[in-house]
Amino acid sequence: MSLIRFENVSHYYNETQALKGLTFEIDNRKITAIAGKSGSGKSTLLQIINGLIRPSSGSAIVFGSMLDYRKINETRLKIGYSVQGTGLFPHMTVYENISLLGRITGQLKHVTEMRVDFLMSLVNLTPLFKTKYPYQLSGGEQQRVGLCRAMLLNPPVFLLDEAFGALDPETRNEIHAELLNMQKLEPRTIVLVTHDLKEALKLSDNLMLLNEGEIMQYAPKEKILSEPANEFVRNFTTI
Question: What are phi and psi of 230, to 5 degrees?
Answer without folding.
Answer: -165, 180
